[in-house]
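Page header: ASSEMBLY MODEL / two components / 582 residues total.
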Amino acid sequence: MASETVPTTGRRRSVEGKPTFAVAFTALFLFVLYVPIVVVVLFSFNSKKSLSVFGGFSTRWYQDFFNDEGLLSSLRASLFISTVTMLCSIVLGTMLALALERVTSRPARITGTVALIPLVTPEIVTGVAALLFFTGLGMKLSLTTVIIAEITFSISYVAVIVRGRLSSMSDEVEEAARDLGCTPFQALRLVVLPTILPALIAAGLLIFALVFDDFILAFFTTGIDPQPLSVRIYSEIRMTISPAINAVGTCMLLVSVLLISLSLVVPRLLGRKDSSLDLISGG
Amino acid sequence: MSLQVEDALVDLAKEKRRSPTRTRLWNVLLAPPALWMLVFFISSVTIVVLLSFGHVGDTGKPVFGFSLDNYKALSDPVYLKVFIRSAVFAIATTAISLVLGYPVAYTIALHGGKYKNALIAFLVIPFFASYLIRMYAWSTLLADEGLINQLLRDTGLSSGIRFLNTPGAVIAGLVYGSIVFMVLPIYASLERMDTALIEAGKDLYHSPLQTFFAVTVPATRAGMLGGVLLVFLPALGDFVSAQLLGGPSTYMIGNLIQQQFFEGQNQPLGSALTVVLMLALLIFMVFYLRATQRVNREK
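Prediction written out in full:
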């Protein structure tokens, strides 16, 4: 980013006159962005079984959720899928990122390109492909198949985040460690990994949230029992509209907002400037 | 696997200094993820392509083959209509996202001041809510008995408008689903832009609007292209928005694919539909890459 071109706020404001309209438009935009979400949360506390008339505050839909064994087992399934996917994809994605930063051989370059494809492939294509692959092998669809599909998608994600951090890290530190007698593996473990740790934590939290919320891949690769939470509520939404779904949705919102906020904050707490916010805003 | 890694590491320990580009450690690190992508991504996409030339066997199971029957079936006007609708919806979604997203990115980047990062975080947070939940949220808002119609009736503005099952609702859902991916790259390119350019433009062109189109827009073309890619790709393959906010009259190619795998149980035909979608995206990518090359060359 060209930092020398960032003037003071005052100068920027003078550049194009009063931004009253632009500011109002942006405020309206942000407002509309939040309306659906606020409404979901609000009506999850409705005492009536209505999504348009608010009858009063009640936690009955949350009680329904926490007494529904089916929904709870789906919640556990989703948490399990997210945890395993996060751990596996962090390991595989970091290996990939390290190798792509250092190896310039042909296979490495090809892998680097291939690893980007899942990021620009619509999930429905990846989902169909995974489904056909599993059924073709005669594998029974289950949480395992969901996890495999989610890992395939997540590796690319982790690799991009970690590479971003690696590329801003100087080779010389590692060379210095080698000069001081470290083996390549020691240099990796003692120098490189601690440096990229904040990026790894941020990536892990992000992957957990993305996988926990993911619907399409899970929809194509899951078995019948237990189903991930998103697949489960999809079939409920199609049958009925009820504030109970809002309660489940609000809980999912809470999980993702919490994790994303952590992924933004943790790297900064660890004293690094790179966070997933910089990544997504392209900074 | 760990034994192999250790062997490789012992070998590596023997050589004092690594050559800067190639050591066995890095190659060992590359193997597992490369193998994973080969097995679970490349080979599974290959299966989709192969099965699209197959057919459903007598037992109801998909059989591989070498016929173009599935693709012939897809040239039926019923399917062509859905393909065209998908393209129109995806293009409309991208265009609306650009028109709505650009001013937002512009305002935050140039007038955000010290609140810039906070505003971007505020903008991003709703997009980390599950896509499914966000589409569901829209469907409850827009329903005939939903909150918006309730408000319209209460205020006497209207006796109710039918939003659901219209193309507008599906496109609105798609825009809401991914507009952040338009705002962020444009924001990033505006941040990188030299604001002195705008000042120079004002001296040259007098009106702020002229300056905007002659200076700012060309300078942020790379960001706009990135946003177009990130919005168009998922929109073209989406089926959730058309499922929850629309109906059979607004179905997109994604809905047809979903039907073939879960209701029609014609996996070869579903595979052919998926290949059509992939080809459409490939064509789009070719144009996209040529456009980015042009932008880069002009820099």
